Amino acid sequence: MELLDIRGTTDTPKVLFDPDNNIFEISGRSLPEDVITFYQPVIEWLDDYKLVPNKNTEFVFKYIYFNTATSKLIQDILLRLEQIQETGNEVKVLWYYEEDDEDMYDLGEEFKENVEIPFEIVEY
Fold first, then answer.
1. 56-66 and 90-97 beta bridge pairing
2. Within 22-119, where are the H helices?
């Protein structure tokens, strides 16, 4: 699998998927004008990755802020991670939130309840 590296901006998150080094991270702010267009390569990459995933995938979400439209795409990403686990591979989600950011913590809890994969919420 090829590396997926999308540079973050003030309105879009940084995306780094590097299966050779077992790095899968989305971080920053997600307020793209067209959420579908921005996340399309992410979803397509994950669709390809789930066909030949690493034995262990640790997926990091480290959002500072995201809009409502992004939350649907996060759910789509989590669905694909569940599908990877269903094929017998290990998957773990790490949801990072800044200290005192109760909203991001609560969002992590909501996503955690909606999936059947190990999901750890980590303060930093």
1. parallel
2. 35-49, 68-86, 102-113
